[in-house]
Every structure is written in structure tokens, then in C-alpha cells.
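Incident log entry.

Two folding requests arrived from the same account within the same minute. Monitoring flagged them as a possible duplicate submission, but the sequences differ. Recording both here for audit purposes.

Request one:
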Amino acid sequence: PVCTNLMDPPKLDDLLARDPYLNDFRGEIAARYERFHELKSRLEENEGGLEAFSRGYERYGLNRTEDGGVVYRDWAPGAQAVFLTGDFNGWNRQSLKCEQKPYGVWELKLPATADGKSPIPHNTRVKVVIQTQSGDLVDRISPWSHYVVCREDVKLYESVHWDPDVPYKFQYPKVKRPHAPRIYEAHVGISSEKPEVATYRHMADNVLHRIAGLGYNSIQLMAIMEHAYYASFGYQVTSFFAPSSRYGTPDDLKYLVDQAHKFGLYVLIDIVHSHASKNVLDGLNQFDGTETCYFHSGGRGEHSLWDSRLFDYNKWEVLRFLLSNLRWWLEEYQFDGFRFDGITSMLYHHHGIARGFSGGYHEYYGGDTDGESLLYLTLANHMVHTLYPECVTVAEDVSGMPALCRPVDEGGVGFDYRLAMAIPDNWIKLLKEVKDDDWNMGSLTFTLTNRRYGEKVIAYTESHDQALVGDKTLAFWLMDAAMYSNMSMVSERTLTIDRGLALHKILRLITIGIGGEGYLNFMGNEFGHPEWLDFPRAGNHSSYWYARRQWNLVDDDLLRYRFLNEFDLAMNHLEEKYHWLSDEFQYVSHKHESNKVIAFERGKVLFIFNFHPTQSFPDYQIGTGRSGKYKIVLNTDSGRFHGHSRIDETTDFTTSPNPWDGRPHSFLIYLPSRVGLVLAVDEEAA
């Protein structure tokens, strides 16, 4: 029902016209927008607006003053007293007491030294000492710390004051958002083939050229925010403003981002605002001596599955902290956009735990939805898109919430894309549970196209999630132990290897072809990286063996991995030429169950797939909406990609005015078994 006493989003009618089922929830959509508008108005009234409010890093933590001194501030409402200590004062824990300010803020001003230098030297250790309400003195790290380093003797992170005399100067400008992101998902620590933690500079100097050379236009850096536990893949964040020191210094990360921009790569950072590590001594938990400082109290402040703390997004200073964190990564490190992790957990009070989503709209509105988290996400998207029009935000959401990826002024949450998480799960399910002969073409196509109209998604065959321990890479599901013995060019090309190579190419091609409006690949999977991903931990004797990327496999001309890599390059460059990902037109004309054939038009190109493991078709009729002379522009069976070269790629396929599959034109084509083709009209001939 329409709720006339609420403020409608300015373009709500556009949203309702796009999805009429939302009319039943118009009142709740308007209520969400009104809460957003009220909060934005309060920020303007009390803080001078979002632009000023989100610069908290200029006020909190350690900041240099104009006279060369340092001012320290932190929000610790539950503290009885706050002190600052470190190398600079001989670790005297109570000699420098902060002054209590309104709203739970504590402040300490330190003048410059007699020779005009900073009272806290660059690259020296600093700690905050909190006197709790019980009178105890406890050591903490400032939530706004820019750099934290692990002490190997105690395995505890300590804050290090990062304030070099000569700040890093970026050499290359930020990159504008691409027409459609082709994302290379990467983890700095595993970017070396050596069993070690790789560095920012190693990745910049040795890996970026591979990514750019393959034709990706974006890179998504995972596990950048500091996390004490390496094996958490960066999801248990302990210091939100500090880049992980295990890979190098803050300047080293700036060098990596700068070099990525040199290659024309749009750089996204994986941002974790859905929860925080439970660590107390080197984390955000119990910073002021209470459990409620940045987090909810009781059960609402705990994530039972992740064993982590949950933010109280209703608190003013929590909003300042998180919004400023977004600005920090965009300003200080020149990141271009964000992948927001764990959005499903934020959107619902049940956090998606033991819940399936049927797609019924009642699941997204009402008491299950966490309005405070939703309000924060809406505010965050509004802020970054207003202040940084080129910023892209991607939501990791499995629930399919309506309007998550529609503009705020329509009543949406404001994300640009969501991850199409059902697609990789479906590929793994098919490979694990269903014989090739029994693959259902209708179900397969439905999964690839099942997304909300007008809400863009990033499609992928596999990400880091599929490769983590307990699962394995797509290539390993396809070929398993045969990869150890038969990936050499001098070894037998077994049926297992032949099937694996063919399907690895086909699955990637159909996914980028119709799975979404963007594409993602996880580091190494472009060449069929074997095995799985496992970080050093007690369960594997602290081994780095599976926490690395074996670039030697793709660089060896005697191994078959290079053909999968070559196909990835051709696929990316073809998308760059035809831009089908950003083209709204797509039409699936053919899904034949017994033949295992799928055909669809996307933008200006035509995709044809034969999934049949043994059956080839000499004269297969394909319908198309556009007449002309078609040429094959990509063929998974090409000898370039270690295929069988069963198709003469010089052949032209001229349409006839014979309607087929609901399309006005058609032509005949030879379709070998297990093949994927892309065809385009010869514009010169046209």
C-alpha cells in the first residue's frame, strides 16, 4: 500500500516501472529512503555534510599539526582515562594523559621538538593505554592506525607511526571506470611461485604485466586491510586504516596501485565493513574496555558462524569511522572502487545463516531486514558516488535483494554491481554431481541469465571461494590427478585432459558471454591452476605450498597450461573489441536438451555452444536477428588453444531469410562436440 506521509525517493516511479512487484512494498521503500534523507540532513546540520564528516582520518588517530607537532585523538566513550605511549617517551605508560572532550573523544597535543621535528619520529612504535572503568590499564592500538607491524617474539601487532619526511608521490592518474569490468581478482601474498608471503613490490614488478597483457581492465586486491590471521584471507580485519604490513610498507602499496594505473588497470579493494576480528590487544574489539564501543552488545554484536564482532551502524562515530575508511583508501592510496564483502550478513538480522532465499519479495522486506546496516550501505554508496563519480561499488550478496544495484534516488541501495554467486556454485555442482550427458541446457541457461532486470552483475566461473581448502579449482575438478601426469606436450592427451581443456574454455566463454555485465577471474585460474588454495595454519603444519601461484606452469612451452592462458587473452580482447558485456541486448534463441546446444545473441555477436560430449552436427541451423555474412571470431576448438581444429575458420556463414527459433534469419553451421563459438557479421562485407 502507498504510504502518503512518507518521503518517496525522487525517481521511485522509475524503479516501480522496472519492477512492478515492488508496488506492494512502496511504503517500506519510501520509509528506507526517508531514514536516509533524515540522516543525511543531520550530517549536514551537525557536521557540515558528508564530505567533511568522512574526513575523520584528518582529525582522529595521529596527525601532524601546522607547527610540526602531533595531535592525537580517539573515541573511547567507555574509558576512564586515556594515555599515549611508545618509543618516543620511553614507554612511560602514564606520563602523557589525554584530555577528555565531549562525546567520548580524548585528545593529546604534543608540540614539535626544539629543532622543529615531530615529537613522534617516523617508523617508531606507539600504543594507546586505556584505563577501564574498573581502573585497570590495558594496551590498545588506535583504530585509526595507518601502519601496524607484527612482533615476531609475541606474535602481536603494534602500531607504527608512519609519517615519512618525503611522502610517496603518485606518478599516474586514477583510471576511469571501464565500460564493463573484466576483473582479475588477486591476492598479493600468494602472487609468487615461491612458498612465501609475496610483497606489494613483487606483484607490481612481476605480475601486473601478466594481468594487463591478458586484457583485463580491472584488478581486485583481496586481503589488503590488516588482518592478524593470514589464513583468514583478510576477512578478520584487525586494523581498518592500515594496509597489511606482511606484504610491505604503506608506500609499497601505493607503488603497486600506481603501477596498476600505469598499465591502465582500474583498481578495486576488497572492503570488509560487515564485521571485525575479535582480537582485543591488536584489534578493534573492546578498544575502550567495553564490548559496546564500536559494536552491538550481546548476541547482536557477535557473528556465530564467523566468530567475529558486528558493528553498531546506528552510532554516530561508527558511521564516521567506516565512511572515513572508504575515503581513506580512495584518497591516500588512490584506489578506484570497492568490492564490499559479506553484504548478505549485513542486510539481514539472521545474517543469511541457515537461510535459503527463494526470491519471494517477503524475504527482503519486514522484520528480517536490518535497517541500520541497510542505511549505512545506502549512505556509503551515496557518498562515494557523489564525491567520486568514477567509483565502482560491487556487492557480495547471495540473497538477491531487489534494488540493491539501483540508484539511491530510485529507492535503491546504490551499488553498481553484485556478484553472480550462483553461477560458480552451479558449475561446481554440475562437475561434481551430474554426468556430462545429463547436463540440462535449460537449467544451465536459467542460472546464467537469472538476474534482476536493470541490476548489473559480475559473472565468474570461479573466484577464490571455490579454490579455498575443502574445495579445488575448476581445472582440478575437471582433470584432477591427470594434471600431474598429462599436462606435458610430450605425454598422452588422454580423454580426461581433452575433456578438461575443452570444458574449461567453454565454461569461461559462456559465462562471460551471457552471465552478467562484468566478468571476474581469480589469479591463476586463467591458465587452469591446479589443486586448491590453502594458507599456512596449524592444520597443514604452517605450509605455504598451496598459498602461491605456479607461474612456471604457464611459462613452460612444453606444458598445456599455456593454451588455456592464450584462450583467456583472446576472450578478453574480443570482449574489448565488441563490448557485449555493456550491451543490454541479449536473446537466447536456442536451448536443445538432447543435442546439448545453446545459441544466443549478445550485443553485436552470436554465441553457439555444443556441450554434447560425443555428438557433432554437420548442418546445424541457427537463427539470428541480424542478416549478413557471419565470420567466426573465436573458436574454443582452434589449434591456437590446443583444440582439434575441426572447423575451417575462414568459412563465411551467410544468412538466408528463413526464420528459425523465433529469429527472422538463419544459417547452417558445422558444430563439433564440446565446442564454443563466437561469430560476428563481417562489417566490411555488410
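Request two (distinct sequence, not a duplicate):
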Amino acid sequence: LLYTIKFELYMADKEGTAVKVAIRVRPLLEREKIKRCKECLIVLPNKSQLVLGKDQSFTFDHVFNDETTQDTIYNDTVKPLVHSCLDGYNATVFAYGQTGSGKTFTIEGNESEPEMQGIIPRAAAEFFTCINKSYDGDKEKIVVNVSYLEIHLDEVRDLLSSAPEEVHIREDEKGNTLVRGLKEVPVTNCEELQKIMRYGMAVRTTGATQMNEQSSRSHAIFTIHISKQSLTAVRNVEVTSAKFHFVDLAGSERAHRTGNIGERFKESVHINSGLLALGNVISALSDSKRKSGHVPYRASKITRLLKDSLGGNSRTVMITCVSPSSDSFEETLNSLKYAKRARDIRNRPIVNKDVIEVEMQRMESEILQLREQLKTREHSSSDVSNCDSQLEGLMEEKMQLEAQVDHYKKFLQSCVKDVETCLRKKSTVGLAKLLDRFKVQEISKSDGSDLSDGAFGEENEDVAKLREELKKCKEDLLNDEKIFAEQQVDFEQIKNEMNDKISQYEDQIHGLNQQIENLRLENDTSEVQNTTLKKKSVRIARTKP
């Protein structure tokens, strides 16, 4: 756990990364022109500023007027997030604004016209273009999955699952938000991704209101999950994973303007409740003077799902869509204030690497190094044994030559005796000279100039050198064995520490699973009680006159 914390602190930006905020102003609608509504927004040219009404000025990272193309909005706001996501950083782009302000058009666009395509199809094409350019099949393995969900009437619904399954929001031991039961579909190209997106869009909950003929009645989140395994230079596998959230928030609504009644009114209540909770989270994160560190993420399901995107591990862009109509002055003012607060939020994005996998790879690399050192020492031992065998061969050869020298000595002695015998019988001058030569040679031999010592001087020097080398090799081998034994002790200690940490993790996971199960049981009990209370309320209502 300590290594994980150090790793995350090392990878995180100390100052954090601010949430980028862009404003998109849509054109006046025909019904607004018929009502003779005036434009209450002025976008200052060549500046990221706009003026609402007479004197209310706002500054943001990007401000787009009603003539800005879909391509420009994508290139300026979302394209950098796509490349950072491929590098292992989480990313989020979400559209916010009142109903009918152009949020869904910005996120999804109009597929029938290429220049009108929204952020999701353009980002999908960018993802697979980058993957195809840099993909190395021998050194990389990239897996892309997508998921699509909506929050309707405060219930999470999987838009890609044909069978109705329960989807629950949970948190793991590190506090990361997970969606249990959500289907993730693997994709291999842009066409497959867009096909899945169209399927989810078709089943998403929409409806007509007085402000929008096809109004989104739910918050929707389309997510691209990327997992990449890369083979490093030292033959280790580096595992990185990232997710890109595309969030289309339902628009804030006022009942007297939308004319919603019945089911539509109930939807409006849930939509505004979720947006209010999201506003409270943004206010808490942007308030630098707040004394309490509590952020009300758990106030709604949309804020729980966007926990990483706001103040967490993500690079985030917020696109606020506003209407220039004077009829929507109050809604536009509230949206701009909302966006201004979001600009003060600072996230802490990090590269998402598998920390335990990295530690295991480090240990495996150390094991390989120790094995290489062991092989080197074994090779040194084989060299020493070769020197021993070579020395033994030389010693045998020396003994054979010494035996030959002894044979020659005996032969000379016999020759001398024969010559002396001849001299006793025949005293000639020539024979005397021959005897003198033999005596001189014999005397030189007896004085220490022995034939064996002279003939084998060089061999004795070679033997001495080999013995010195053998002694040195044996000393080096002993030292290496000591070092290897110490490293082996260190390795066993590290291994035991990792096993202890893994056991701790397993105990913590078991405890958390037990707590989760208890909470789930409590939640089920609460749901049963709520259902019973609702039935009783209905019965009481029916009994009233």
C-alpha cells in the first residue's frame, strides 16, 4: 500500500490540472424569432470572453459563437484529450445547459452529414487512426471496449444490454467508482464503435416538451475503455489503462416553460435534482475557503459516476451550451455562473498503471539478473576446473621428461666408464681429449646445471603462473559466492514482504466485501420498507373521501 501511494504521488501533477471550460452559443430558433426574442449575448471577437445583457462579462478557456463548426469545437477542446487518453490518462468531456441549448447535438451530432458529426464519432475516428499508426503487433496489445448507460428517474440503465439486468454503483478498496453489471462491448474499428453508439442512442429515453421536440429525459454517459500492454526494452510488460467519458447531461427545466405534466413533470424533478447535486459538488470543489474537506459526491448517482471527472483522476473539459435568446436570460445566466465555478476545480490526473504488476515485474527483472550472475559464476567455476586439468597434464608431461633425463644421465655414466676402461688399456691422446670433454660435461651437470632444470625452466614458470591464476580464480569465486548469498537473502526478504502485503490486501478486500454485503442487505431491507410504505400510502389515499 505504501508503494502504491508513493507511486501515485510521483506520477501526479503537484499543482493539479484545472477543468477546462468552453461556452457554445447556439443560433436563435425559428420559434424564438417568431416571438421576436432579441439576442442578449455578445461574443467578443478574437477573445475568450462574452457579455450577457449590458454589463455582465465572463471569461472562459474557449468561447464559440453560433457560426462555429463542429470540427473547430472538437479540435480545440476534445482532440488533446484523445491523445492523452492513449498515453494512459483518464479523460471526460460533458455538455451542460438548459433544455434545447444544443448539448446532444454537440456530443452526438448528425450522422447523416459528415460535417455535422458530433464529438463522439470524431473522437472514435481519432482513436483508431492513432492506434493504427503507432500499433506494433510484436510489442503491443491494445484492447478497446465501450459501454453506454443512462440515469432515468434516478435509476441506472444499461443501454447496450438487451436483457434487463440490475446495474449498481459500487466503490473498490481504493475508492474508485465501479458500475457492477454494466456491459462492456469490445470493438476493433471506428465503424463498430459508431454502430454501438447508434444502438444506444436509439433506446435512450427521449420525449417532447414545449421547449424541445426531442428532449433528452435522462443523463447519458458513453465510455471508451482502453487497455494497453507494452513490451519494454528490458522485456518487461507495462500495463496501462484509461477511460474516456462522454457525458450528455439532461437540460435544466422550468415547469411553467416546458409545460410538463404527469410523467414528464416527474422526469423534470429528477433531472433538476441531479443537476442541483452536481452544482453542489462543483461549488464545494471550487470554494478555496471551505473549511470542511467533504464533497457531497454521494448525493446523487450522476455525481457518484463523475467523481473522478470532478476533482479526481481525470483531465476534464466542460462544454456549456447556452441560448442567446432574451427569453432564456435567467437560464443562460445560471449556466454561465455554473461554468465559471467549474473553471476553478483542479483535478489530479495520473497515468493509470497496474502498480502491483509493476512491482512484480521489477522483482522478476531482479530474479533474471541474479540468474545471469549465477550463470557467470558457474562459467568461472568451469574455467577453474579447466585450469586444474591443464595443470595436471603439464605435471604428467614434466614427469615423463624427467624420466627421459634420468635415462640419458645413466647412459652418459656408462659411456664414461667405457672410456675409462679404454684409457687403461690404450693411452692415446685422442681418447684422453674425449674423456676430458665427457668429464667437463659431467662436472657441469653435477655443479647444478642439471639438464632437467635447464630444459624445463619455461615449463616451471608456466606452472607457477597457472597456479597463481588458479588461486586468484578460487578467491574470486569465494567472494562472488558470498555476494550472491547476501543478494539471495535480500531477495527472500523482499519476497516475504510482498507476500505479507498481498495477504494484507486480501484481508482488506475480504473485510470490504463483508461491509459491502452488509450495506447491500441494508439497502434491500430499506427498499422493501419503502415499497411497503408506498403501498400503505396508496391505500390511505384510496380510503379518503
